[in-house]
Amino acid sequence: MAKSAETALCVMKRCDVALVAFIDGGVIIIGVVVDGSCSSGEIVVVNVSNCRYEVVRSAAKSAGWRVEEDEDEYDALVADATAGTAAAAPATRTAHQQAVILRHHHAYARARTREPWNVYWTDTSVSSQRAMRLERFQRLNHFPGMYHLARKGGLGKHLTQLAKLFPSDFSFFPQTWVLPQQWSEFKERIESGKGNRTFIIKPDASCQGKGIFLTRTHENVNPTESQVAQRYLHKPLLIDGFKFDMRIYVILTSVDPLRIFLFEDGLVRICTQKYVEPRGRNLQKSRMHLTNYAINKESEDFVFNEATSDPGTGNKRSLRWFWGWLEEQHGKDARDGFVAETHDMIIKSIISVLPQLRHIYRSCVKHPGPSNCFEILGFDVLMDRKFKPWLIEVNHSPSFACDTPLDTDIKSRLIAKTMALIGVHASDKRKSRQRLKKDAQSRLYGATAPKSRRRLQYDGASTES
């Protein structure tokens, strides 16, 4: 597996992405160039009613797409149901409940009459029910079931199972215990005192560093909470004495077959307090041990990058800058080896949950053709002093907030490339409707009848049309 993964990445310089598509053990390389409009006046419509990021809207407009802000039909129905108002008897509804019902009713009515969207871009994960409602020409920016990869506990479980079967191929993530299921194993390991005695505890579904802490004892770990415990990587590579990690962006455009694109740029996030290996007194210093931007940006020592022309300054830097820094400081072999191992790690991580992703997708989407879903994933990777990459976690809803010019530059390019890669055309709706009409005629007249001489059966008699 390692060899195939190593040779599978082919960098497409023109569009800043690399693609791996595994089909029955083989690899294909493709590229897509998409225009948002066509000569007939048709246009791609993207619904961003559940997206708060302006960079998504800007990228869509730059692609020639029309941005739709009104609530989607499905969202209106779900909001009405979850508001808890529809079930109330009309006589017992409050004025607020009645207003909520009317608002969502009007949104539903508008959605039923307006032109359907091509792309629905949402900041949150999607349910299987949402995916089931997709028409052939529509795209959704999340796969149902992605929690298998994005939840820390789920990913840890899948990778641990594969590591038992292929230990040398799946050694890129820290030893992990899923709690509370593996509480006894974790307690036994931490009490043994063997090896590195520092562990990091993370809530299963948290983000932005919330609820994360270091410990050397099981006594301050709640054995009943849903969380993961990992061996803490206490010897990371440092930049100017500070711990850092990398946010590597991956674009998943299909799970059946599997198509993985690697975006060539990303973010390097640097702590604001100089690193010292964990001891009892410094375990609570989150800005020394945790690289999360949300934690470090509040520090008075945090330096914002003010210009894209200088990507090597500040506590958030570009991944392209880092590749140059790594080669300059530690040599080309260190850089090339790390890049190859990182590509291998990304591919294997997704493959570890591929059976689950495919099963859920196939159960939701019945019609053939291009994938109705896509996903931008944020892989958080740490490098140790031996230049080995370690997978920390995978984010299926990475932040597209643009607090600095560097953020805007990288994230706008990432989203623009994603919109180009998903293969949306302005004529998709018309062609889809034509195909539906043709399929209906085939069912009515007989799929095997010649196009020019359809035979219509009437109680044993026949006529030609």
UniProtKB/TrEMBL annotation:
One of its GO terms (molecular function) is tubulin-glutamic acid ligase activity. The keyword Cell membrane does not apply. GO terms for cellular component: ciliary basal body. The keyword Metal-binding does not apply. One of its GO terms (biological process) is microtubule cytoskeleton organization. Transmembrane segments: none annotated. Gene3D superfamilies: ATP-grasp fold, B domain (3.30.470.20). It holds the Pfam family TTL. It comes from the Eukaryota. Keywords: ATP-binding, Ligase, Nucleotide-binding. Residues 429-465 are annotated as: Disordered. PANTHER family: TUBULIN POLYGLUTAMYLASE, TUBULIN POLYGLUTAMYLASE TTLL7. This is Tubulin polyglutamylase ttll6. It comes from Hondaea fermentalgiana. The lineage of its organism: Eukaryota, Sar, Stramenopiles, Bigyra, Labyrinthulomycetes.
